[in-house]
Amino acid sequence: MKKVKLGVLVSGRGSNLQAVIDNIEKGTVSAQVAVVISDQPDAFALDRARKHNLPAVHVSAKGYKGKRDEYDALLEQELRKHGVELVILAGFMRIITKVLVNAFPNRIMNIHPALLPSFPGLHVQKAAIEHGVKFSGCTVHFVDEGMDTGPIIIQAVVPVLDNDTEDTLAARILKQEHRIFSRAIHLYAEGRLTVKDRRVFVSGPENKSGEFLINP
Ligand code: GRF
Q1: Does ligand 1 come within 6 angstroms of the Cβ of 156?
Q2: Which one of 20, 143, 167, 174 would you pick to mutate in the ligand 1 pocket, going by the greatest count of ligand atoms within 8 A of its CB?
Q3: In the chain, which residues fall in CATH 3.40.50.170?
Q4: Which terminus of the chain, N or C, has fewer Cβ atoms within 10 Å?
């Protein structure tokens, strides 16, 4: 099977990036990380990439305040330079513009630590606890121009326990993030994802769209 060339955009600790790298090395994800790009110079994610001898680049957003299109054009340039086919937003703390969305239509994936469309945005584990939901989880979706609004590829569900804090819930969700992000990338690599309107269908002999629905 072909290895999909990934461009991974990060801003911070990069645990999702690490999970993808580990799964590629294990052979469960048919991909290669072509480049890791951070908007933050000291993102730990960059160290992780370098440790695995992967190209790691800081693209500074300094001087691009109010010029998000221009910054995204820089990102596009860097991604194309490395022959990227699929862009992975792994804790990238910027909203991307139509420049990037149009450059990679249905070829940008994001991981979000809540069951979208509930709780888009930031600090969502805290918001889920405060709202009193009994289940939360995470969502891998294709990226459109909205914030956390694109077509949903996979979701995983976790319980919210009475004594949960933001940190304990985030940790439970993160474990699932590490699993489903890699799974979504692999399904893409296998050519099994089709987007119709807002819906993403998973083709194949075993149609397992719901396989990640409930996690014990
Ligand atoms: C994750 O919780 C992800 O869902 C959100 O940002 C966080 C990034 O964590 N978009 P990491 O940098 O991958 O460890």
Answers
A1: no
A2: 174
A3: 1-104, 110-216
A4: C
Q: How far is the CA of 14 from the centre of ligand 1 (A)?
A: 7
Residue 98 has pLDDT above 50, yes or no: yes
Say yes or no: CB of residue 16 within 6 Å of ligand 1. yes
- Residue 215: pLDDT band (50, 70, 90) is very low
**Positive/negative CA dihedral, 170, 172, 90, 95:** negative
The answer to whether the predicted template modeling score (pTM) of the entire model surpasses 0.85 is: yes
CA distance 74 to 25: 29
For residue 12, pLDDT over 80 is answered with: yes
| Whether CATH 3.60.10.10 fits 110-216 | no
The pLDDT of residue 204 is 79
Helix runs in 95-213, H state only: 98-103, 124-131, 166-189
Ligand 1 atom 7, closest CA: 91
Superfamily of domain 1-104: Formyl transferase, N-terminal domain (3.40.50.170)
